[in-house]
Design a protein that fits this description.
Forms a ring-shaped head-to-tail homodimer around DNA. The chain has helices at about 5-20, 80-90, 140-150, 205-215, 270-280, 330-340, 380-384, and strands at about 1-5, 35-40, 40-45, 50-60, 65-70, 70-75, 95-100, 105-110, 110-120, 135-140, 165-170, 175-180, 185-190, 200-205, 220-225, 230-235, 240-245, 260-265, 290-295, 300-305, 310-315, 320, 325-330, 345-350, 355-360, 370-375. By secondary structure, the protein is α+β, with helices and mostly antiparallel strands. The chain has three domains: about 1-120, Roll (DNA Polymerase III, Chain A, domain 2), CATH 3.10.150.10; about 135-255, Roll (DNA Polymerase III, Chain A, domain 2), CATH 3.10.150; about 255-375, Proliferating Cell Nuclear Antigen (Box). β12 (about 175-180) and β13 (about 185-190) form a beta hairpin. α1 packs antiparallel against α2 (about 80-90) and α5 packs antiparallel against α6 (about 330-340).
C-alpha cells in the first residue's frame, strides 16, 4: 500500500472521520482509523458504538493531488496520533507506505515517521443498508431542524429514549420532537417524499450534533436511508451511519397546550438580553430560578438570590393581551429556546403559574410547526 496526497485535503477528511472515533470504546481496534487505498482514491473509516463515518478522497479531485501507487488497507491506532503527525508536517504533501511487517511510514520533506499498524481484516464491517427506498432532505433545513430540537434532549441515561430526537414522516411532513420532561422542542417541515412513506424513529442527540458538523454549507442535499436499527445519511463523498434508539417515544402532542390566557409578543434579542442579565444572579444562588410577572401593560423579570442580591428588569414588548400572571422558570431553558429563533419577534403563550408555556414565532403564532415549550418551576410562593 502506497500513496502520495495533499496534506491539507487529507486533514479535512480526517477531521470528519475522527468525530466517530473514541478512546472509550470497548472494542480496541475502533480507537483506530481504517485507511483503504483503491485505484479511484482513498476511503477513511471511523466508528464507535453510536456512529460510523466513511469518507472518500478521489484521485480525480485536483486539489487532493492524490497518486495511488499500491492499493491496500490498514488500521492506524490510535487515530489521533496519525492526525497529529499529518497536522505538523511542514510540506504540502506526504507519502504514506505500508510494508509487509505492518509498519506504516510517512515521508514529507525532511520528516520521516514509522508507526505500527494493524491488519484491517480485524476491523468490523459497517452495516449494509438498502438505499432503494431512500429519500433526500435539504441540508440547510435538516441542520436547522437539528439545531432547533436537539437542545431539549435529555442528558440523563435513566430514560435512554429521551436522549434522542423523535423523527417521524407522515403525509409528506417531517416532524422532529425532543423533550427531557422539563422542556420540549418541536419542528415540522414539508419534505419531498413518496406519499406512502411513513416512519417513526429516534436518533441519538449526540449523533445529530456530529452529523451537523460534517454537513457543510456547500452541500445542498443529503440522502437518507433506513434499516431496522440504523439510519444512513449520504453525501457525494461521505457516509454517516447512526444507530437508532430502541423503545417507544412518549406521546407529546397532548403536552402542547392549544389555548392560552396570556399572550406576549417581544423582540427575540431584547428578551434574550433581559434573561441573560437576570440569570446572572440566579446562577449565583442555590436555585436557578427567574420569575416572569405580567400585568396589563408591564412585563418584568426578577431573580432573588439571598447569597448575592436581587435583580429586576422591565422588558419592553410589542403587545400584551390576557390575564395577569406570574410564572417561575429555569432561565437557561428560555435562553436555549430563544437561541433557536431567527432574529425578529416571538410570542409567549401562558396559561397559569404552574402550567407549561410555549414560545412560537410571532409571524405564525397560530401555527405550531415550530414551538418551544418550558415547564415552570414550583416555588413556595406559587404553592401558596
Amino acid at each position: 500500500m502506497k500513496f502520495t496526497v495533499n496534506r491539507i485535503e487529507l486533514l479535512k477528511k480526517l477531521r470528519d472521520v475522527q468525530l466517530a472515533i473514541s478512546n472509550k470504546t470497548t472494542i480496541p481496534i475502533l480507537t483506530g482509523l481504517k485507511i483503504e487505498a483503491k485505484n479511484d482514491g482513498l476511503k477513511l473509516t471511523g466508528s464507535n458504538s453510536d456512529i460510523s463515518i466513511e469518507t472518500k478522497l478521489f484521485v480525480e479531485d485536483e486539489n487532493a493531488q492524490l497518486v495511488i501507487e499500491e492499493t491496500g488497507d490498514i488500521v492506524l491506532q490510535p487515530a489521533r496520533f496519525f492526525a497529529d503527525i499529518i497536522n505538523r508536517l511542514s510540506d504540502d504533501s506526504f507519502t504514506f507506505e505500508v510494508n509487509t511487517q505492518l509498519q506504516a511510514s510517512i515521508t514529507s520533506a525532511n520528516s520521516f515517521f514509522t508507526i505500527n499498524a494493524l491488519d484491517a481484516s480485524s476491523y468490523p464491517y459497517l452495516p449494509e443498508i438498502d438505499t432503494t427506498d431512500s429519500f433526500t432532505l435539504s441540508v440547510r433545513l435538516l441542520k436547522r431542524v437539528i439545531e432547533q430540537t436537539v437542545i431539549a434532549v435529555s442528558k440523563h441515561e435513566s430514560r435512554p429514549i429521551l436522549t434522542g430526537v423523535n423523527f417521524s414522516i407522515h403525509e409528506g411532513k417531517l416532524k422532529a420532537v425532543a423533550t427531557d420532561s422539563h422542556r420540549l422542542s418541536q419542528r415540522i417541515i414539508p419534505v419531498n417524499v413518496p406519499e406512502d412513506l411513513t416512519f417513526q424513529i429516534v436518533i441519538p442527540g449526540n449523533s445529530l450534533l456530529e452529523l451537523s458538523k460534517i454537513l457543510t454549507d456547500d452541500i445542498e442535499e443529503v440522502n437518507v436511508a433506513l434499516a431496522e436499527n440504523q439510519i444512513l445519511f449520504t453525501t457525494e463523498d461521505t457516509y454517516f451511519y447512526s444507530r437508532l434508539l430502541e423503545g417507544k417515544y412518549p406521546q407529546t402532542d397532548q403536552l402542547i397546550p392549544e389555548e392560552s390566557s396570556t399572550q406576549l409578543t417581544l423582540n427575540v434579542q431584547t428578551l434574550k438580553g433581559a434573561v441573560g442579565r437576570t440569570s446572572l444572579l440566579s446562577h449565583a444562588g442555590k436555585n436557578n430560578v427567574v420569575k416572569l410577572s405580567v400585568t396589563d401593560d408591564h412585563i418584568q423579570l426578577t431573580s432573588n438570590s439571598p447569597e448575592v442580591g436581587f435583580v429586576e428588569e422591565d422588558v419592553p414588548s410589542k403587545s400584551i393581551a390576557g390575564d395577569e400572571v406570574e410564572i417561575s422558570f429555569n432561565p437557561d431553558y428560555l435562553r436555549d429556546a430563544l437561541n433557536t429563533f431567527e432574529s425578529g419577534e416571538v410570542t409567549l403563550k401562558l396559561i397559569s403559574t404552574l402550567r407549561p408555556f410555549v414560545i412560537v414565532p410571532a409571524e405564525s403564532e397560530n401555527n405550531y410547526d415550530f414551538v418551544q415549550l418550558i415547564t415552570p418551576i414550583r416555588t413556595s410562593a406559587a404553592a401558596r
